[in-house]
Specification:
Blueprint lengths: L7 H10 L3 H8 L2 E3 L27 H10 L5 E6 L2 H6 L23 E2 L4 H6 L2 H15 L3 E6 L1 H6 L3 H12 L3 E5 L9 H15 L13 E7 L5 H12 L2 E7 L4 H5 L6 E4 L2 H15 L3 E3 L5 H15 L2 H29 L3 E5 L4 H11 L3 E6 L5 H5 L2 E2 L12 H12 L6 H9 L4 E2 L4 H4 L5 E3 L4 H11 L3 E4 L1 H9 L4 E3 L11 H16 L10 H4 L1 H5 L5
Parallel strand pairs: 2-3, 2-4, 4-5, 6-7, 6-8, 8-9, 10-11, 10-15, 11-14, 15-16
Antiparallel strand pairs: 1-14, 12-13
Helix pairs in contact: 3-9, 6-8, 9-12, 9-17, 10-22, 13-14, 13-22, 14-22
Bound molecules: FE(7)-MO-S(9)-N cluster and 3-hydroxy-3-carboxy-adipic acid (HCA).
Length: about 550
Amino acid sequence: KKLVNWTPTDIKADMLAKYPPKVARKRASQILVNEALGNETPEISANVRTIPGIITMRGCTYAGCKGVILGPTRDIVNITHGPIGCGFYSWLTRRNQTDASAEGAENFMPYCFSTDMQDQDIIFGGEKKLQAAIQEAYDLFHPKAIAIFATCPVGLIGDDIHAVARKMKAKFGDCNVFAFSCEGYKGVSQSAGHHIANNKIFSEVVGENDAEKPGEFKINLLGEYNIGGDGFEIDRILKKCGITNISTFSGNSTYDQFASAHKADLSAVMCHRSINYVADMLETKFGIPWIKVNFIGAKSTAKSLRKIAEYFGDPGLTARVEEVIAEEMPVVEEVIAEIRPRTEGKTAMLFVGGSRAHHYQDLFAEMGMKTLAAGYEFAHRDDYEGRHVIPNLKVDADSRNIEEIEVKADEQRYAPRKTSEEMAKLEAAGLKFKEYDGLIPDMDHQTLVIDDLNQYEAEKLVEIIKPDVFCAGIKEKFSIQKLGIPMKQLHSYDSGGPYAGFQGAVNFYHEIDRLVNSKVWSYMKAPWQENPELSATYVWE
Ligand code: CFN
Ligand code: HCA
């Protein structure tokens, strides 16, 4: 067969061909040729351990806890208890932005706090050093809260970070000190770290400040981290509509926003993967309902604003939202009209985290671009398949067994895949289902959906399909570019952004237009172009 005639099934078979049988079997369950039919999606294996030896795109539990969830909060001193590299590489590389311009506002984000563990700390224990670090941070800054994050060696030597935190909290009296057992090796991926961070924030901080928050139509914006200023753009739009965002988890957030989250009327969930259980817990404990939103893509932004207005059912708000959409859309449409002739029909691949591989397909669709293959690094089956059961989640913040928490939470909210008939039966029995879209049903038939893509498979895909743009993270960036394919980081946005909301969409259209139409890539010679023997090994037999 000629490469151009390959079907997605051929490509899957080719990607698996080099693996030993056991590995091939496991990877086969994580690579899916999409044949989704409405809600009856084919099953994909997700949130399972990466096979040792495979160069995964995933990050670690510490990254998910410290970097992702707590990193974007500006007035908590975050101390990494571990070797300096862990603190350093999770220090603003995610490009989470903050605005502490209000007078007297605290902002510790420009600092990288770490105990800088050395060999002797590993041998004799690091608790004393941690205690000294907490004391030093307190004396220097007098923050309202100090958070401690465990790295791999801390778990291995058994430092009791929680005991140290309790002791220092009692000593200070006016500073909340809490610790996260988020050792990098725990769980399967970043996702376990999100869980550890969110459970603790929920049990330690949410509900602490009972003062009423001013404003109308009060919402929490859950799962928005202000990467490249996305949160600023969303806040601009919400404000213009008259919607009050009292608490973002956790882009540009403060301790008090978490403490006051129970004062909102509604939670709007942007990244479901990292926080859907907090939305559930806010609903179960405080009666705050939640809806799924997506501010990536101009149409999705308009749809999400309408969804929020619909929830409140206030004619004034509905009218204002329509006015804002009418004001913002002409600029967006003007840019689409200009760039679309150049982007129409081009192809993309998206392999990112736990929600962007899905959300960004809306932006590409607005440009007339087709997503041929996509997948998450660490999402769970509900993110792939959509919809879930509302559980009666109990906060289990103290459990050290995060794998158990993650599995339990999934079991509660997402029992094995059900047919429409089974769903109807459950619904008739009073179980409420919340709808959110899954990546699989939203993608075209005969596209490839791949969980936990690795370096080898990424190169295979690019080589065979040659997309016009490949979207992933920093570890993929240069290997893909060396294959002659434009690469856009959808984690840090390279140096760009915001890409959320209306203005963000315009930024993204320009960026992708520039990338997929740049001549520079045609000067690159990919290995298979320079070395014909290589491509000979890929011929299908
Ligand atoms: S900002 Fe979010 S949107 S929080 Fe999550 S699942 Fe990561 S850090 Mo990288 S870019 Fe990525 Fe998502 Fe939610 Fe970011 S797709 S991998 S853990 N993610
Ligand atoms: C993380 C953070 C990350 C990494 C991005 C990348 C981010 O999970 O460790 O691989 O480029 O967005 O900063 O996802």
